[in-house]
Amino acid sequence: MNTEVTERGAGALEPADLYSLEEYSRERESFRKHVMAHKRDRRVALGQNATLYFEDRLTMQYQVQEVLRIEKIFEEREILEELEAYNPLIPDGRNWKATFMIEYPDESERRAALAQLLDIENRVWVQVAGHPRVWPVADEDLERATPDKTSSVHFLRFELEDGMVGALREGAELSMGIDHDKYVCNLQSVPDATRRSLLNDLD
What we know:
This protein has 203 residues and is α+β, with helices and mostly antiparallel strands. Helices cover 35% and strands 21% of the residues.
């Protein structure tokens, strides 16, 4: 494996990018610390009960490595199957991809909230100052909501126009939020560290 960790967003993972099971056993502690620090800058809380976790090549490598470790997978065919499942969550240079989680510690409260928050996954937005809001494409891999409730986990893709990318590079403010009749949140500006990390996802 190429041991130089890349934090650029674009670029599908290949088997050669991964640690072997033996290598990962040796490197896991330091690699995990690095990934957890990286993830902190890519987490955006939207109110008290919803969070966006922006994915990239590094976060997906960590997910794959953990699956391979837990399942004791070392056959190339099976590794390729895992990469096929996780590679679509890596941004391609003109978008952001995020895991959106609705988080209520109490199970009964969570059940009630999910019934009230139907379609919330489509009401999450990002906005570059001076440009319209960008609404997500939600759950492209499979439908997670039912007619009675939404899911607590969704996968979102935000497609950015060239002008938005250019404005971000020139220092435009980035804001995010949720516009749902049962859950409204307007985060006026994401932290600078998050903004810098998300800029790495864009070519």
